[in-house]
């Protein structure tokens, strides 16, 4: 058996025998050909326009996409192409480290994760590896070991994405009649995360998940992905592939924002498909509240009972452990008087 970094094929073992072997297809990159979508593309220069009509039009485009798609792309977002190239370069160096070292050396606050250790069937595979780092640890030199050049880039990326995330969250809050600063205290950097992702080539099948279908459990997520593609989202009850755009960042609404907005904004299920021939890299920033922050709908009558972010995270983890999948917001709907089953 060919060794891989990380050893995903070895880890999944007999489970992989349940998957049909990879077959050739017409896609030169080795992926499944399916319908591609162009996410709403929003030029954020409009928010800084001296023309009030342009500013309002840009804000409304953000809110409309958050309601109709749960996803959108932004250009002129204030994060330089050079910085994004730098983080890609540093990511590649980091993930090229031999697996035994990544798994044991405590890099980046010991945040290295890979595969799906508790997978019991192929649909629970995640053919990927990642570092999921709290913002409070990003500046600590001790987290980086020999990867000293990574620290400065990580700090710059985290700061830039944090600024952008709060700007977009403020626009969405203002649309619902709340001040743009409403999340400043709730979403302090101590509660937020930066995630470095790598999706290795998958020799088993073109149908393997790089990341299993899920919704994000935060307020919103900002994603920078490379040119390989693989991101898919649920739109009009079917999966569609997101066409990569190297000039744009992808933004998606999380569960907490859907609950807080009383379902005005939508947290949409999405996944990443593995690629047989090419590896994929991405960087994601998660705008999260503190664990004791009370999440209540901003309008009445509320569809959800009050809950804290910590309570939500614990429920998600408990459901995944018991059922193998996330149930999420339906657990907290007020009209649910019966137990949700798996």
TrEMBL record:
Any one GO biological process: gibberellin metabolic process
Keywords: Dioxygenase, Iron, Metal-binding, Oxidoreductase
Keyword Hydrolase: no
Gene Ontology terms, MF aspect: gibberellin 2-beta-dioxygenase activity; metal ion binding
Stored Gene3D superfamilies: B-lactam Antibiotic, Isopenicillin N Synthase, Chain
Pfam family, one: DIOX_N
Keyword Iron: yes
InterPro entries on file: DIOX_N, IPNS-like_FE2OG_OXY, IPNS-like_sf, Iron_ascorbate_oxido_reductase, Oxoglu/Fe-dep_dioxygenase_dom
Name of the featured protein: gibberellin 2beta-dioxygenase
Catalytic activity: gibberellin A1 + 2-oxoglutarate + O2 = gibberellin A8 + succinate + CO2
EC number: 1.14.11.13
Class of enzymatic activity (EC top level): oxidoreductase
Membership in a protein family: Belongs to the iron/ascorbate-dependent oxidoreductase family. GA2OX subfamily.
